[in-house]
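Lecture notes, unit on protein representations.

Consider one protein chain, 194 amino acids long.
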Amino acid sequence: VHLRMGLDPRQADQQVRDVVVLPHGLGKTVRVLVFAEGDDARIAQEAGADLIGDEEMINRIQKDNFLDFDATLAVPSMMPRIGRIARILGPRGLMPSPKNGTVVQPDDIPRALNELKAGRVEFRNDKTGNLHIPIGKASFDNQRLLENAAAILDAINRAKPTAVKGVYIKKIVLCSTMSPGIRLDPAPSSLTAA
């Protein structure tokens, strides 16, 4: 889904950024690396983490450019050491951050891990004020795509900055990769999962 927003992206108080967990996921398995040591690592392992990031993993990422994972989580105690690989993880959108909810207390690891594996999507406007958000695979049935799209639109409306005046969502275009887009009515009632 691509959305043309009625905001000025140059204004700091008109940025749209949030996270939504899709009801039907994105249709792909997500490999999650959890940066933790000791008891925290055990909690992550029991919660279903694909990889555990300790000092050895940080060195492997730094030396071998190892990036065989799709998302990361971290406990706060590991953040100073993860800073060494920020230049590798950051540009790929893999750097854990408290802002996007990927730096969590050890007790929250199972919840955050389940969210990431269930289809957690982060969105933010680009420099032209547009949003580009995946909602699923073309093989999904209409109902699943509609419910995912409705969840995203609900999250976008909740994330509306107070400084935005006038029309918030100007245009919505739905398309699959390398296919023509289909324009949708941006009225709030047009995309309900009924």
